[in-house]
Amino acid sequence: MKKLKRSARLVEMTQYLLMRPHTLISLTAFADRYQSAKSSISEDLAIIKEVFEEEGLGELHTLAGAAGGVKYTPKMDKNEAKAIIERVCHQLEQPERVLPGGYLYLTDLLGQPGLLADVGRMFATAFAGREIDVIMTVETKGIPLAYATAACMNLPVVIVRRDNKVTEGSAVSINYVSGSTKRIQTMSLARRALKEQSRVLIIDDFMKAGGTVQGMMDLLYEFNAKVAGVGVFVESGELGTEERLLEDYVSLAKLTSVDLRTKQMTIVPGNFFD
């Protein structure tokens, strides 16, 4: 790369860091890239770090030593996140979104790249302090959420299938009981998709009683893997006499009441904001 003026270098360095979250980049690599002294690079990084933290864009960690450098951790300010989720809650309260069984129509929202990027940063913020190797979700609506989170955390994605695909080779399949319908269903994961002892963050779009998430947790047991966390976009508080199958999870929004006759419902920010 040709030598840049400092203003241009700051812009390019910022973009370089934003595109490589959770990646350790040495000062030497920056110095070679911009043909600048390490002292100048350090000053630039100090400016970027200050702006990131003041604007709630994340944190820039400095690691000292010969193998050191800087690492960008994306985060989102809680106030900014709450403003976004409150707008989402308002959209979700539209009567036409109520589906039979008290479910919500989410597909159109999960097709908006801007919202997905914001949700990914929220989940990355919620689980920033945990050691995670891979993001897991079950097809299909959870897939965009998982990839958005993975992009912010620089992690691979593993997709649990409802049916085993021939193109994925041998797989491990389990039966699980849906927490909301009480029906026995099947999910499977290719043997090559997940290494043993992996620390897994489960991401899902909607959780009622938690049967699907519990099924994924049971599937992880077959791989001798560990659950590092569970994140759901919307949880339902309308369980009636049912019991939630899990307690340790992070939700961004919560359906607190729904009237299937009038299609009136109330949705509030989830426990991420508690």
According to CATH, what is the topology of the largest domain? Rossmann fold
Integer count of domains: 2
Terminal Cα span = 46 Å
- Which whole number gives the mean pLDDT? 92
Q: Write out the strand line-up for the largest beta sheet, numbering strands in chain order.
A: 6-5-9-10-11-12
The second-level CATH architecture of the largest domain is: 3-Layer(aba) Sandwich
Question: How many separate helices?
Answer: 7
What is the rounded Rg?
21 Å
Structural class: alpha/beta
β-strand amount = 25-35%
CATH class of the largest domain: Alpha Beta
* Spans of at least 5 consecutive residues with low confidence: none
Let me know the largest β-sheet. Answer: 6 strands, mixed
Shape: globular
Q: Write down the secondary-structure element order.
A: HHHEEHEEHEHEEEEHEEE
Tell me the total number of β-strands: 12
The amount of helix comes to 25-40%
Question: Can you describe this structure?
Answer:
The protein is of the alpha/beta class. It folds into 2 domains: 6-74, Orthogonal Bundle (Arc Repressor Mutant, subunit A); 78-273, 3-Layer(aba) Sandwich (Rossmann fold). It is built from 7 helices and 12 strands. The strands form 4 sheets. It has a 6-stranded mixed β-sheet, sandwiched between helices. Strands 1-2 form a two-stranded antiparallel ribbon. A two-stranded antiparallel sheet has the order 3-4. A hairpin with a 3-residue loop joins strand 3 and strand 4 (103-104). Helix 5 (113-126) crosses helix 6 (142-153). The longest helix is centred in the first third of the chain and has 17 residues, at 38-54. It is globular. The model has no long low-confidence stretch (mean pLDDT 92). InterPro entries: PRTase-like (IPR029057), PRTase_dom (IPR000836), Pur/Pyrimidine_PRTase (IPR050118), PuR_N (IPR015265), PurR_Bsub (IPR010078), WH-like_DNA-bd_sf (IPR036388), WH_DNA-bd_sf (IPR036390). Belongs to the purine/pyrimidine phosphoribosyltransferase family. PurR subfamily. Keywords: DNA-binding, Transcription, Transcription regulation. Residues 5-74 form the Bacterial purine repressor N-terminal domain. It comes from Paenibacillus spongiae.
